[in-house]
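Not sure how to ask, but would you mind making up any protein sequence you like and the tokens describing how it folds?
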Amino acid sequence: MSERHSRLTVDLAERVAIVTGASRGIGKAIALSLAENGAKVACVATSAERVADTVAEIRALGGEAEAFGCNVGVTEEATAVVDAVLEKWGRVDILVNNAGITRDTMLANMKDSDWDDVIQTNLRGAFVFTRACIMPMMQKRWGRIINVSSVSGLIGNPGQANYSASKAGLIGFTNTVAREYAKRKITVNAVAPGFISTDMTAVLSDMIITEAKKRIPLNRVGDPQDIADTVLFLASEGAGYITGQVVPVDGGMTA
């Protein structure tokens, strides 16, 4: 492939990856990085149309990818995606649970639906996709599961009780599944992004971004590729002795 996105080079030839929330931002960067290092990538979003650009970009660079529409928190839909991937490529080696939404508001104003929607996508989505992928990974006795959490799950963030709870829950989920399947050579880790430049942060004012930078020792906002490179390493053979860990990628915010 030309015009590489990832700054790492690992060998993922013959590996098959599923990336949820792959239509933009962090998820798109992850899908592209896995593909350009040899993986076949199932790109998942709420509809196949939404993730078509990611798939097209991978194919244009010479990679192999397919688009899947799915509500990640619905068991039947998640299972159908995994079954389709197994039918097409015969295996699932890497799962990146990246899909996430926000419904930000202070707790007193938070609706039941604000809470339920975020937990459904961010936490239940990771649960149902991981459960669907575990057996194929066990059969191959190899697997990499990477959950995209957040520094909000480590230290909290005002106005994000639902989001922070979902991301903290994802860390507990990571730790437990890592212990359950380590003997099957399946590693399970989480990445906790800090303040990253994405579509969700693009709407913020310059003043808010300036204030955010003051909390970041590296004095810059992160880029989706910063997260993608970390995920790429955790998906590689070189990370085979790392499991049950949370890797903050936050410019030092939680140092």
